[in-house]
Every structure is written in structure tokens, then in C-alpha cells.
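ligand=zinc ion
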Amino acid sequence: MDRTIKVEAVGNHFSADSIGLDVYMTNGGTDVFCDVMALAGSSVARTVWQQNLVLHFCDLVRYAIGMGGFDLAELPWTQDHQAEQDFFIVLLDRAIHRTGWEKLHYTPSIDYKLGTFMQMLTTYYASPMIDSGIGDWTIAPKPYLLEMCMRHAIFQGEFGCRLCDLGQQPIDAPFVWEMTSSYTADGTINSETINRQISQIPDELIPRILAIAGNPEPRSVGVWIKPPHLEPVSAIIGKPLDPHAYHWLGKAVA
Ligand SMILES: [Zn+2]
């Protein structure tokens, strides 16, 4: 099976069925859309609902290709839906005005889609949505989700900054090294993350760290710092690595 063809054949529909409008984006186009919405929104989201909306774009389709579309009626609009819709419009307008695009290592060709989405959003009338499958956006996001990437000034979200993700961004984008330290709910690697700290590691320290921690697998973008290596690596970076956390030294887009 040719994976390329399969992936290209599906994409995401964003719709407002009640008014018969629809925007279709390929999977690649959806990624670009999410990048520009994250850039447009992370620095201006103030209320819990606004933060949840922006986080939705930060995390969308990172690990569920072709599952990102939604109908506007599905969003968790509350009694405050007028203000919420106004914010969504501001967000889209900031994307249309290319807010933050200087942080990207590519030039999005998405103006037409943003314009069509705006037409749909401004024509639509939101109303409160109880029990949205998307979530409850009256609940404040966990603080680590709202931490800003220091290079890209967008929320880290559940999977880390999407603009840092080498698998998501152009393969020729320049990169830096980062240490990601994650704390999980029950202390095992597969349980829910409850806190996360990310810090950039100077390039000149990397050979010394890898000499201890081992080189990444050829196809991998980083390496776990195993318990016996925590102390020597701490000494190199001049910062303690908590034995109760998992530490991943990986490449991130500059
Ligand atoms: Zn980033």
C-alpha cells in the first residue's frame, strides 16, 4: 500500500451545516492552518474558553491524521457564545494578517482557506452546546499546557510546541537541542503527564552528553537520559535532573 496516496486522499472538513457552508483542507493544509491559528492565538487568549480554543488548534491532528475536522455547532459554546465567537473571529483575523508568520520556516499558502473559513464563521450564529464531544471549555487547562515555547511563542499543548516538532515542520528547518523533563501521574512513562519543563541545551554540550547517554538511534530525534546517567549529565548542563521525572534530550525546530 502506498501510504503517500492514502494520506493525501483524506483531509479534514470544517463545516457549519446549519448554514450549508464548509471548508475542506488536506492533511497538510490542516497542519498549516493549525500552525497559523496557534501563532495567532497563544499570546492573546485570556479567558479559559479562549485558552481552550487555541489549545485545540495547538494539539489538533498531531497524532490522529484525518480526524481534525469539526462542525462549528460541535464547539463547546457556552452562554457567553457571542463573546466566544467574537474571539474566534479575532483569532482568524490575526491569522489572515499573518501574525507570527516570521517564526515559521516556510511560507503558508493558506490565504484562500482562511478567507473561506472567515466567511463561514461570520455567517454562523453560535448557540450554547451542552456535552460537546470536543470537551468542556469552562474547565481551566492544566498549567503546563499553557506554557509558551520560548522560541515560537505558542502554547506547548499536550504534545509540546507544534512548531518545534521536526516531524511536523519542513525537514530542512534548522534545529536546536532541548531537554524535556516530564512528571507523570503515577511515575510511569505511559501515564498522564502532570508537569513538564523544557530547556534549550547549548550545542557545544551535546557531544559530551551523548558520550554518556549514548547516541540516538539513526531514525530517532533524541535520547532518553537513563537513571545512571542523570548525575553526570546534570553536571554537564549545570542543572539538576530530578530522578522522579523522565528526561528526553531531543532536537527541536529553531
Ligand atoms: Zn516551539
